[in-house]
Amino acid sequence: MKEPFLDEEEELINNNDDNNIINAKINIDTYNSSNNIISTNFEDDNLLINNEIQLPNSNSSNYISPSPINKIMDYEDLNIQASKESRLSILENFNEELNTVIKFNIREASLIPINIINDKSLSPDCYSGVENAPSPLLSEFMKVDTDLVLTPLLNERKKFFRKLSISDIMSWQKKELKISLLIMTKEDDNLIAIQMFRNLLSYMLDRKSSKRPVQHVIKFIKLIKFGSPRLKDEAYLQVYKQLHKNKKYESLMRGWKFLAILASTFAPDNNDIYNLILKFLFFEYKENPDNLIKNHANYTFVRMVKTKNRERKMPPFSEEIEYIENLRPMQIPIYYFNGKHIMIKIESYTTFKEIKSIIMDKLDFSNQRAIYYSIYEICYKTSGTEERYLDDNEIIADVLSMWNSDIKKSKNNKEDIMFRLYLRLLIYYPYDDSMIDNMAIEYYQTVYDVISGKFSLSEEEILILGALQLVNEFGNNIEKAYINITQNYQNYIPWEYMHIMSNEQWIEKIMEFYSYFMNYSQINCKKEYIKLLEDHSTFKTPLFGSKFSEKKSNDNNDEFNPDSDIILGFKPEGIVIFNQQKEIIAFYEYIYIQYWGISANYLVINIKKGNSANRKLYFHVSETNVIQTIMTIYVNFLAGKSLKEITQDIEKRDKSFDNNRPNKRIGTKYIKQIDDEINENDKNYKKFFIFPNSSGNN
Known about the structure:
By secondary structure, this protein is an alpha+beta fold.
């Protein structure tokens, strides 16, 4: 059998079951606060289970035109937050400097060098877990008997015609395995298990190898994909075996590191083996006199419990493995759209939902507000950008692993590539002028959307917006403003409009408008900038690249071109379909959408209007779980639900849909190449874009 191995560029999961449409059922009889939402109802995983919406028809005499966005004001401590946040514009002044100690190199997807981290930075997982294990978990693994669990599962082994005991089998050995520890039903699983043990021996330095140890652990984890779930149990038992009666301390400690890496990736499939390993870790922590081993036992215990319901979809990347080996948390920057950032400590199991909660706390915002935000991924390339809203339940380390893979591909293609994570508004909510940080968040996000091409603008609008942006950054200092726009003009002009005139002409005209606004305050600049865009169809509208599936849909009355890219936009009142020029093709109000559903690759909506026949429309789109969240929020606000009820509903759905989350990053390109229109004076049009990089914001 050829030795199975996956290159790092390969995806571990390929969930393309387009027929697996997952939904919940919602009945909304009238538009008032007493409506009830029926719990998630799964009838057939292979069929569309309807998200049923029964909002009142707009022709009804008792119908009030809904303004669901205003209902977002009902969270409990809005007034308290308003006074608190007015003390300081966090986005204008707050920053945690990147330096050599906490630097995260996005381009290389590498983390803090371990050799510059001090002992005080050990992961909290080293200190909590075994001591705080819940009673039900303790009672579960305490009653596990090793012999009773393993006797029916292990392959029988003999030595000199003597049958080996469980203790003998599960003890350290230097020789390679000739047969898997566990009884396998498939020969391929047995061969994979033998190869896994070779990699384990090599990592623990019990077998000579020309490869680096990290390569062996990555290969070990990837091999498990080739066989049955029993290989997960085999993996844990192989390491468990090598930790018993191992007299070589260096080998022993590398075995503990290996176990921590496994526990950061997946848990055993067999519940008895899972409890057996937990029991082993518990007593190692309680009874082993070696403090380093105690730390490893506690660290691994916590991770096994965490990964039981949060299995990784991607293998750890080499820099992450270095952190796990040293029991350290990783640190990454989360950016705001003004270029500032906040450093966040993460573990291998940390989700984006947890990241948002940490950010809300650091910004002194109400944690209830986290539902309105998303973590937003931007991949900067020389050919443009790819973007996506990250689902709250995605594990951040999986995303970093994907970055690592993509960066390697880009090097092979000789293309520059860089990634950043941003805090981005997903749901826009009202605020008053005293909440200046809210205005700052919306303003800087809107500036990015303008520059990256999410608005169709007139020449005059571009000039006014560019001038307001300059005044916000430099006030009435015309000299600094002119120097900055000359050096960084690409940060003030939407990319797709740069070819209309030369750089010099753009700069000259923006500076003319600058003189009209140069005495505006920063707050007024932000307000006027946002106000100018209010009438645009893409304003305050999350956008998702999509294609219409004519084959799956039962009609094409809107005459979508199935071969052309379209953009889905989600407003408080309904779904907008745009073409690539941001022109509206169709608009579907939620009050006429009876059902909707999602799979990993499709959004399905069922439209009923008056006496006309039902229309079932399929749109091929990524980020379907984020779309489900947006629609759930807006439809529930239309139904009069409170923020607390909506949050609970989303959490309930998250648990139901977790196994259907795509692990593949699919970007949405908003910036189009127009090489034929770029003249020699506009070579910088394709300049690597990281907004904003002007001196006024750094």
